[in-house]
């Protein structure tokens, strides 16, 4: 019933969402999930999520895919994250239903 | 009106709401304005000021003066970042100097709108071309800032190249500019008829909406004040002195162009204000090494409050003296 | 007013703001309007139009004409999906044909509101019963669409049965209808007194709020345009020709009922418009096999712009000729 | 106006919109108002009522009567939770009794604003000091409630101590109070000039915005009604009888202070209303053992509707009789 | 200090949130967490999260429970997801605190 | 390329967000991510995320850090969660990129 997958999570400045989506689309994964109102703190200071002043806020992207695709996605987003900041983590999960 | 009258304007809405927000944060109040509301009201303000500017422009029409104003506005947007960068480099590294310089080359729509209220209170008109000038001044400094940064700060230029195209599009077609210019054109085309349709929305509730937005601005400025301490006195001084210097230039240009009192004031305000929305958004992408915790607070928590508190009355007063 | 005057109406707000939003997206501007704001303004518009309709209805009162209008409205909402389905089946599979047919049986509140502005500009009144008719036309086509789908598309009907109950509740008690009808009743009961209380809110800023909403609509329509290319010319043609056909029927019915110019125009607009909010929301649940990427864009990015751009002036013009 | 006229006021906006929201939820409609919009409108209402209160206060000025009103308001805010706790302990445990008692010692801004509409409809003025009284009454009961809770409910007091400091700050500097008092001061300082600037925003669209907010309140109250069933008849009775008791005291105090009809009504409404925003927010932190599913619904889904439906007309009627 | 749990994540069209919640409540799990403003992309196209046009947006539900309950939840939501689309994934986690 | 980390997730009433952030900052972790509009259900009833009435809503905080820091964070938030309610769960993940 279950097959293993990788669960990739990317969090970075909201300004780069469109770029991130573009490169992820490029890897040909079946889908992804996006959160647009994400606050937080990191090496680049506090993101309190305020609307004014160029939006001190983040975006969150989650991709579920098999290990092969995962490698592709990670390679694709690496340059963006290393340049613009944020984090990318991978954890294990299982498809239960995907339709 | 004399200086006292003028100051009394700052005890009437909308301005005091900025300080209400600021004080609330300093008192550690939990006051919170949803960012979606900030976005809504800022779009509303751009729509309203753009539309009114368009109607004005229909009345004033396109003269050589209009053309000269737009050219000078453009020139200021291009030159300011250059000398601002030269000054800032004395203390900041290249990326931060370039990013902050770009912010001062651009403009603050809310400062412009607050200034327009002072004129309204004094029954002084200003031409719609000033709104066009504002739109024109928003983006060029972004290009200059990035150009400086690329010039002095060695970089994988090729990898960047594609970015650059996208960056320009983002700079010149960001939501604020599109709504501002679009509304200006709609106002220009529909003029009286349009104005009569939109008046209660773009006119009636305008100052109330601006008050609410300034409350919000005060809250955000308050939250950013902490970052200033780190920034240090050099940047505080810069955030106050550069606007004064630019205002002087603005007054000079207005005088040479023979602008009327209203236009001279608005042009000066454009020169003296700094961007804390469009430019930071672009800099975050174009100059990731620069620290938003520096260039946003200087424009938002120093220059903006200084302008609406002391700058605007001062510029107004001087220009009034000249026109007497 | 003549055709030119009429067209000139489309250069004045609110309509041009739709195209501003559309163009902004086509220029790849990052313009973004928070969905919570869209929700707020759409509820506001329904509240305002419902309330005004109620006050109108109080004045006009319930006549046999009112009854006939409501019956014909209902009939159009039931018949349209049937022949629309028959046409669409020539190219689409059963689920998509049924879902899209349902969209055209229902109505577009914003098209209705935009039409009411044209009448207001021409000082032509329309009866509150037209607002009631709009509420009445919103949901029946959902039931028809689902019925067709179940009839031709074999399915675990039992498993569905419970769903169906809930679906009907969702169809007839969705937020839009409740706010629209509720405000209509409140307007009906409070009439003059209520109107004088609500006027600045439901009247004064109304066209400005509508302009803002149309800006938003333009942005969304622009984002959906891409899907049209996939949809192909058949659907583009359908999205334009069916409204024209329905408008013809609407004009015919209005003529037979002897409706005055205002009511005839509004009734025609109801027949010619398609739903991109209530019906899609219901279809997503009732006909999950149908592709929202097809039925939403046709109603939102083809029929809606066609109506406010070309349809409304045309319907208005023809009806005016008839009433001369 | 007589009782019938008065009741007829409740068929006119804004009040009926509360019931529209309530009914929508009971009909299981999917109506949903984004929380960011609720936040926006509630801040708007506080800004508007605070500002108007400040302008009023400028006119009336500070008299001994004003001082006495504020003292009595304070006293009611301190005493109410004490006897409310004593009653509630008959059925509830200490944490829940203390939290609910605190809610009734505080006030409901929306009830106050709705009451101000009744006076406006009857052309009866009330002093700005009543707005100051509202601000003054919002927080003390929080302190009393926590004090009771700490006194009777043994607890790691030291661990709590730091919390307490923060709690007080949160109680007295929560966003609502800051905006209300700040706007009051701004109104006090800018008076006529400010009023003329803000009128279309704080006046014109006020009742419409309130109507929208009441629609929202109705939806939330409807969602909370379920919790009432669990709460049981004791709490339903308490939510109706305590306001009546407090109203009686309020009327008595107003009579002794010789307040005019408008002030007497508003003071009575303050005594009779209960808080469902500021106090619950504080209680959740200060008395985590108390169940928000109890103290919010009693104030929001019982006392609030009772007041705007039956309480306000009743208080108004009695006070009018007294003043004849 | 720690006991193992399953972490179930369900993402589907926002229109089905109320139905999902109903079936999950039916399984008797102790709780769940919901996100209402979720964008994304999948087999059913792009959900850009726009407010108009029948909300092209998703919902996200996360349930923490033991393995037995997890099976129940998965069985309960399976028909909805298979019919309406979306994904359901399960990963391992540990309770640290639950109160 | 990958090093193991712990992924801590905390969900509790929104009212305690500022307190949570304070204690987490105290542990000196490099960063965290916050969601402010979180609905859900638990032992303390339904959080439907309504704006009025003292916000029946939650906050979500996610912290990525190594095992040692993770222990610190858990110890730090434990008193808050046990007193105010909510959950705190930990799962395994891998840094892919952190910059
Ligand atoms: N250790 C971490 N755990 C969770 N989120 C993090 C962490 N570090 C950074 N983030 C998120 O990534 C965003 C950008 O990180 P940075 O570029 O380091 O400022 C921060 O605002 C956080 O939302
Ligand atoms: N592979 C995936 N990884 C993450 N999220 C997904 C994935 N596939 C689908 N989704 C989410 O589930 C939603 C509905 O999926 P679908 O029904 O396939 O369009 C999408 O809009 C995404 O938010
Ligand atoms: N078993 C669970 N799975 C996922 N989220 C939960 C669970 N239990 C509680 N929560 C979340 O934690 C919040 C507070 O929990 P509680 O204090 O138990 O009411 C709830 O509103 C949920 O959002
Ligand atoms: Na400038
Ligand atoms: Na139709
Ligand atoms: Na009270």
Briefly, what is this?
The complex is a heterohexamer, with three copies of chain A (99 residues) and three copies of chain B (324 residues). With 99 residues, chain A is an alpha+beta fold. Chain A has helices at 17-26, 67-84, and strands at residues 3-13, 32-42, 45-47, 58-65, 87-98.
Description:
The complex is a heterohexamer, with three copies of chain A (99 residues) and three copies of chain B (324 residues). Chain A has 99 residues and is of the alpha+beta class. Chain A is 28% helix and 45% strand. Chain A has two helices and five strands. Chain A has helices spanning 17-26, 67-84; strands at 3-13, 32-42, 45-47, 58-65, 87-98. Chain A has a five-stranded antiparallel sheet, covered by helices on one side. In chain A, strand 2 and strand 3 form a beta hairpin. Chain B contains 15 helices and no strands. By secondary structure, chain B is mainly α. In chain B, helix 12 packs parallel to helix 15 (292-323) and helix 13 packs antiparallel against helix 15 (292-323). Helices cover 83% and strands 0% of the residues of chain B. Chain B starts with a helix and ends with a helix. Chain B has helices at 3-9, 15-26, 35-60, 64-88, 94-105, 109-121, 129-138, 140-152, 157-172, 175-204, 206-231, 233-257, 261-272, 278-286, 292-323. Chains in contact: A-B, A-E, A-F, B-C, B-D, C-D, C-E, D-F, E-F. The A-E interface holds A 2, 5, 7, 21, 25, 30-37, 64, 91-99 and E 8-9, 11, 35, 37-43, 49, 58, 60, 74, 77-78, 81-82, 85-92. The structure holds adenosine monophosphate (AMP) (3 copies) and sodium ion (3 copies). One adenosine monophosphate (AMP) sits between chains E (11-12, 40-44, 47, 58, 85-87) and A (29-33, 62-65).
């Amino acid at each position: 019933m279950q097959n293993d997958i990788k669960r990739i999570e990317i969090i970075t400045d909201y300004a780069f969402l469109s770029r991130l989506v573009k490169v992820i689309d490029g890897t040909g994964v079946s889908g992804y999930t996006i959160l647009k109102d994400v606050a937080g703190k990191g090496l680049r200071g506090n993101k309190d999520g305020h609307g004014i002043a160029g939006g001190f806020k983040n975006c969150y992207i989650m991709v579920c895919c098999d290990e092969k695709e995962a490698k592709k996605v990670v390679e694709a987003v690496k340059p963006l994250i290393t340049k613009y900041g944020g984090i990318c983590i991978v954890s294990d999960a299982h498809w239960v239903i995907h339709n | 009106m004399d200086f006292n009258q003028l100051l009394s304007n700052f005890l009437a809405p909308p301005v005091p709401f900025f300080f209400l927000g600021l004080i609330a944060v300093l008192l550690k109040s939990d006051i919170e304005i949803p960012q979606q509301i900030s976005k809504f009201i800022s779009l509303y303000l751009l729509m309203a000021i753009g539309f009114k500017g368009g109607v004005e422009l229909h009345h004033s029409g396109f003269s050589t003066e209009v053309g000269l104003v737009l050219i000078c506005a453009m020139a200021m947007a291009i030159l300011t970042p250059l000398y601002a960068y030269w000054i800032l480099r004395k203390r900041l590294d290249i990326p931060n100097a370039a990013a902050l310089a770009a912010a001062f080359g651009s403009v603050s729509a809310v400062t412009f709108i607050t200034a327009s209220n002072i004129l309204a209170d004094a029954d002084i008109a200003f031409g719609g071309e000033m709104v066009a000038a504002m739109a024109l001044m928003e983006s060029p400094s972004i290009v200059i800032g990035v150009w400086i940064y690329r010039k002095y700060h060695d970089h994988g230029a090729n990898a960047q190249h594609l970015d650059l195209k996208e960056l320009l599009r983002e700079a010149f077609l960001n939501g604020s500019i599109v709504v501002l210019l679009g509304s200006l054109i709609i106002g220009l085309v529909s003029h009286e008829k349009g104005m009569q349709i939109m008046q209660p929305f773009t006119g009636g509730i305008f100052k109330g909406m601006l008050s609410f937005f300034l409350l919000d601005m005060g809250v955000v400025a308050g939250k950013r004040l902490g970052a200033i301490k780190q920034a240090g006195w050099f940047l505080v001084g810069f955030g106050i002195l550069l606007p004064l210097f630019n205002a002087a230039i603005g007054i000079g240009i207005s005088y040479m162009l023979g602008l009327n009192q209203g236009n001279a004031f608005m042009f000066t305000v454009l020169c003296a204000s700094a961007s804390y929305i469009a430019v930071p958004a672009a800099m975050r992408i174009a100059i990731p090494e620069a620290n938003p915790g520096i260039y946003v607070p200087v424009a938002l928590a120093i220059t903006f409050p200084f302008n609406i508190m002391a700058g605007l009355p001062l510029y107004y007063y001087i220009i009034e003296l000249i026109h007497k």
